[in-house]
Sequence to fold (149 residues):
Amino acid sequence: MKISTERKKRVSPSKEDYLKAIWTLSERDTERQEVGTNNLAEQLQVSPPAVSKMLRQMEQQSLVAHLPYYGVSLTEKGRTLAIRIVRRHRLLELFLSEVLKYPSDTVHDEAEHLEHHISDEFEQRMDALLGFPKSCPHGSPIPNVDGDF
Fold:
């Protein structure tokens, strides 16, 4: 059975988690665009060698630029995907909180599970249902469909 080209191009949920973590960490430190691999390992709760291995794979997909002993930064392709995941995560948090009435202390973990599995159409419908919100329940901005904040 052949795997379609579209399926091969997909980024795994694990890589999406890395992209989101790199984006989040780089947004916190506005002085640097690079994120240290130890910081990334801590954020993702994995070992530094596991981070290095994943970053090599992601570099081959042109998602990140990694300079050993210095840090990792997102490529334009990686940044676009990271913002897409951040958008989905924050929309899901709001949807879970406002529509499904999940307690606020549970929406983050539930959104973590769901963000990798919703379709573009589901995302668009959720956005419209929520009235194209500007922020999640925690006050973080939600990027629009074009990735702008």
